[in-house]
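Technical annex B. To support the medicinal chemistry partners, we prepared a structural model of the target in complex with S-adenosylmethionine, based solely on the information shown next.
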Amino acid sequence: MLQVTKDKVYVDGTVGMGGHSEAILERSSPTGVLYGFEWNEPSFELAKKRLSKYGNRVKLFNKSFIYIKDVLEKEGVLADGIVLDLGLSSFLLEHSGRGFSFQKDEPLDMRMNLETEITAEKILNTYDVKRLAQVFLKGEVPSAIRFAQFIGEKRKRKSFKTTQDLVEAVKEFYKTTRKSLLAVIFQSLRIEVNEELKNLEKVLNEVPEVLKPGGRIAIISFHSLEDRVVKNWFKSDPRLKPVLKKPVVPTLEEIKRNPRARSAKLRVGERI
Ligand SMILES: C[S@@+](CC[C@H](N)C(=O)[O-])C[C@H]1O[C@@H](n2cnc3c(N)ncnc32)[C@H](O)[C@@H]1O
């Protein structure tokens, strides 16, 4: 979709473990250049190691993708292609120790980057019930208001410290620990901690300015809240035309191989 070739400039706004970055560097060999952004510190270090063999063809930044425009303007370059593969990586879920997974017992942190001030623990223990309800409502958590009230009562007895404290509260309130329910509750807190939708809107608004005419932007989202923002943006931004009528979704074969891909949607636009 990005039509990667040599001599061009690409941006990976969510480097993660460097899978997309490496594929872009391989296909744009020997002269393509990649600017990579990864907000999470340990992921950034791992990707830096993996991609070091590409020498000065790769420039990595341990920064949020909201800085893409600033960095490219400072470097005096425009991009031929930009990719954003949103959300969490398997690494963050399984190895970060920051409480992203309801299947582990870890501190309720959920910060992608430790410079962020708010944590999931602070939200659960200190947001007033109205504000907490807003977090759950925005995250489309079922019975959001009553669940926020329940948390408000429960924390008077004992504050929330770990992911399993939250799982316990879900179990008490909803009488179930269905995975899809836990996922949506954890997701709503993660979105609030990292201001994910706000950051997404900011980057979408800014990146057309640093994309060459004919250059493409490919975005993979993993849940409807994100996808709604991306879809509406492609529909309404006059600087872009859609490349695909419908988003690309994984085949059954891919989902079998990689179940975490099941909710992925790829949308692609081209700079006019
Ligand atoms: C789905 S993973 C990307 C995986 C990657 N495509 C790969 O090949 O390994 C999303 C990554 O984006 C990072 N991330 C999330 N929000 C970010 C932001 N605002 N700026 C930069 N990176 C971000 C996460 O830390 C995570 O590593």
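Notes passed to the chemistry partners:
The chain has two domains: 9-85+197-271, 98-194.
Residues 9-85+197-271 form a domain with the Rossmann fold fold (CATH 3.40.50.150).
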